[in-house]
Amino acid sequence: MLRTTINALLSDPVLFSRFVDIMKRGTAVLPTDTLYGLAADADSIDGVASIYRIKGREDTKPLILFLERIDRLMEINITPTQESRELLEQHWPGALTAVFPLNGKPLAAFSHTSLGVRVPAHTDLLRLLAAYPGRLLTTSANRSGQAPMCDPDAIEREFSGELDILVDGGCLESSEPSTVIGLDIWPPRILRAGKIHF
Fold it and tell me: Rounded to whole angstroms, how far apart are CA atoms 100 and 78?
């Protein structure tokens, strides 16, 4: 398992190129504004399958797409209504996951009909997402049914030999997960209570 930091990745072109190559087929752990997350390239069928296998998660439960800014929704054929966009601009970057219906299949490794999207409030992670030549699907870094993990050393021990990259962001404070809302209707439905309260 390669262990590095976001600053190291972004300051070393050779290391960053290695990261990109690994993510074409593999998996990583990334620090976020809430929890550590397992991540795979949204077009990597092998990488996404690895997340489900490592986590022990049912493939009927979709992963969440991380973007660095709201405008990138257009690239995956999602056009929020004016009301939805105003709501998202209030809470993005932040711990709000918005679930949209999908038109077609804009992500090769994602086969669900709706997609949860989040812009995390983590400055370094946003820099990484902006530099990465693709998109990342994520879920919390833990075995299914167990508590999310906040200590990179514990994550390394738990997933030794299973993950390709651990991006160390230090020990994170315990946090609620993101609030999940459905934007297929207005007003939106709260699908999971979390860090942001309405």
Answer: 7
pTM over 0.90: yes
pLDDT digits 0-9 by tens, 36-50: 999 999 999 999 999
How confident is the model over 182-197, as a mean pLDDT?
94
Instruction: Find out whether 18 and 26 touch, Cβ atoms under 8 Å.
Output: no
CATH value of 2-192 in 3.90.580.10, 3.40.50.150, 3.90.870.10, 3.90.1140.10 = 3.90.870.10
